[in-house]
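Reviewer 2 asked us to include a model.

Predict the structure of this chain.
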Amino acid sequence: MMREELVFGPITSRRLGVSLGINLLPEKGKLCNFDCIYCECGWNKDGTGDRIVPTADRFRQALENKLRQCGQDGVKIESITFSGDGEPTLNPDFPQIVDICLELRNRYYPEAKVSVLSNATRVYRKEIFEALRKVDNPILKLDAPTDGLVARINKPTGHYHVSEVVESLKQFKGDFILQTMFLRSDDFDTASPEVLNGWMEIVRELRPREIMVYTLDRETPQKGLVKYTAGQMRELVKPLIEEGFLIQIR
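Predicted model (structure tokens):
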């Protein structure tokens, strides 16, 4: 299972290019309100050894040191990406941290994009939405069109309804990136007609500026999951491509 430092990389991302990673969650644990069956960080129950999340002050120091060093070494950075060991918006300093990140990006790497990978569960909170509006790439997850399938794939803790997440995402007026995982197991298939059609209807309702469709890439905590090829996914989303949606397939 992956465990990341507060600032890590840069690494080459299949979606974002040369990416400097930000982990706002425990460095030796995991903190998430999803427990996705495909998560490269493993199950939540296996990540309880460390519950300490970095403060805004610690983040500022770590990111500035890293950006300064990368600049001196001539290291290329195309994206500063909030991902890490769980859901980044759970860090209580998240809005302040986004402001700090943008300030330091502008100073050291003004051409780099700031990206946030989020499960979209906290977009309904005004301060989280406003912070996500400030970044270049708010990349927001919706893996399934029904509460039942989300329960199987993402295993959310607490209150979760697809309809409420969709309403929250409407606030972006299309200015966000929708991210969806395509996979199947013995008891579900995200590419089955009823699931695919339901998801495409949500896409048409939200009209995101870009859609990232991807599949399994690393070892998963639940065994027996099956990935799709890029060609298969391209065929599945062909109706949306023909309607003019910008879709990145990985």
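The mean pLDDT is 93. The two ends are 21 Å apart (CA to CA). We have added this to the supplementary material.
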